[in-house]
Amino acid sequence: MAELIPLTPAGANAPQEPFKAGACKLHPQTMCPAFGALRVLARIEGAQPAMITDTGCLYGLTFVTHFYAARKSIIAPALGTAELSSGKVQEAAAAAIAEAAKEQNVSVIPVISLCVAETAGLVEELLPSEVDGKPVVLVRVPAYAIHSHPEAKDIALAAVLRRFVDQASATEPGTLALIGEVFPADPLIIDGVLRKMGGRLLTTLPGRHVDELKLVGRAAAVAAVHPFYRQTTNVLHERGVGVVSGAPIGADGSAAWLRAVGTALDLDEEVVERVAQEEEASARGFLASQPLKGTTIMLSGYEGNELLYARLLVEGGAHVPYISTSIGPSMFTAADEAWLKARGTEAVIYRKAIEDDKAAMAHWNFDLVIGTTTLAALAKERAIPAVYYTNILSVRPLFLAGGMIASLSFVRDLLSRKPLYERMVAFFAE
Question: What domains are there in the chain, each with its CATH number?
């Protein structure tokens, strides 16, 4: 049987040089951002997307939309080389919108324009604002301007909110709107804790119906639990809705978030403090066992919430020296990045590239890799337990003590599979 040789960084006995990101960040490696917009828009009941793009892009995005978003057809003009060179993109867009309006049960028509339509000169002012009483909303998501599909979700949600959220909406005191594609149990858990404080959760966006979009304007405050919803929060802020940043992550983050929400909703301070302390105590009771102590974990993804998961891993006792994400840095990521770097994280890479991730794998000895399919495959070749972040970890409960315990327990189970990976590599090396 072949001997399994552990991989160690070059010069492991010498002081390690700081990690340096070397990949170009001008062209981030991510799927077409239109996917993120479609994921939000196609799930809205009554929304009939009309996509203005070339035939090749339409083919690929139709597949991923059916697979990930909704069983809903996309209406689009046939834009090949001949059609594009004819200069009739505007007419083609108008025809697609008219066709979308004829579909049954249509309440809104999102018009999604990609690179081809934008470079060919699609003029927003010449598009109808509505057809037969059905609102038309242009969502511009060319890949050269929007660098990740999470950020395209933000663009799409902001576009429809501009149309449907009324500045004159009456506010319902003590109500919070949640913004972020979260595990279905998370809003229920958050609502339960808010009710202990004297508040309640009004709605969660991106929603499944236009009425949910309209409802957010009545919230006393909104909480953007994912850091890439910048335009969305700007729209709501302009309409007079208070914004709470951050997320109820782990022991530290959950207590601070609950206090911030209590302030934003003008709830009783003593009640809020008691609930926040209860939640923190519950989390710290689990963390006392240091379930991930002595492990080094790599976290890489393109969902935009990677820093949140990294906080859980660190609170669980893991060393997380490297994190990469497809979104860009902003005021919404700054607090989490500072928290992580104060606790041993050496590199937070925005606009991630596989070259950065490979370099990190050569730089550190990881006990677990949570990343993209490409990165997970590379880790498994080296007998390192690895999982696909998006479909395995990012779809589990995350928030407050309950979400933290569920996520960390699952990660602890993943770490126990090291002998299995070693046997697998040894078997194929024979």
Answer: 34-146 (3.40.50.1980), 172-286 (3.40.50.1980), 290-429 (3.40.50.1980)
